[in-house]
Design a protein that fits this description.
- It is a single chain.
- The protein has four helices and ten strands, in the order E-E-H-E-E-E-E-E-H-E-E-H-H-E.
- By secondary structure, the protein is α+β, with helices and mostly antiparallel strands.
- It has a single domain, classed as Pnp Oxidase, Chain A.
- A hairpin with a 4-residue loop joins strand 1 and strand 2.
- The longest helix is centred in the first third of the chain and has 26 residues.
- The radius of gyration is 18 Å and the shape is globular.
- The N and C termini lie far apart (65 Å).
Length: 168
């Protein structure tokens, strides 16, 4: 009596202030961090030769400036649409209800660096307008069909990010 609640399945203490949604979000966040670290580690070990493709799309190493820390933050993503004039990124977080942290960083500081196929480019990121997203969405889903399901279950409008070359 009066002690902390214990989860009988795991014999772990349950923090009274932590609800199931917060715990689920923590698990999702840790999973994404581990996946990102794995991709970055393999990319470094192979000198940028692998993984060039993620989920059937070109792999992109995105470097943003942390909105709170001011430090460079790197994450691995995939680009469903890209050419010499733009690289399109999808802030889906696998259909999670929350935007990914990299998206918050680039909205605070849109100057980013992208590395694709071993080439690093300075770019400016912006969120696609609703009309731009509507025009791009069929090609995005054609490149990776699960994006449609992510949009359905996310409960938010998944941002489409357009990165264009900077002139500086």
């Amino acid at each position: 009596m009066g002690g902390p609640a214990i989860d009988r399945r795991t014999d772990r203490r349950i923090d009274e202030g932590t609800n199931m949604s917060e715990r689920r979000n923590s698990v999702i966040d840790v999973g994404f961090k581990l996946m990102n670290l794995t991709h970055k580690g393999v990319l470094k070990l192979t000198g940028g030769r692998w993984p060039r493709d993620l989920l059937g799309m070109p792999g992109v190493q995105l470097t943003t400036i942390g909105r709170k820390s001011g430090l460079p933050r790197t994450t691995m993503l995939a680009s469903p649409i890209h050419d010499e004039h733009k690289v399109v990124l999808i802030a889906s977080k696998g259909g999670d209800a929350r935007n990914p942290l990299w998206y918050a960083n680039l909205t605070a500081n849109p100057d980013v660096e992208l590395t694709m196929n071993g080439e690093t480019r300075k770019m400016r990121a912006r969120t696609a307008s609703p009309d731009e997203k509507a025009a791009l969405w069929p090609d995005i889903v054609a490149a990776y069909k699960p994006y449609a399901g992510y949009q359905e279950r996310a409960g938010r409008d998944i941002p489409v990010v357009i990165c264009e070359p900077r002139s500086d």
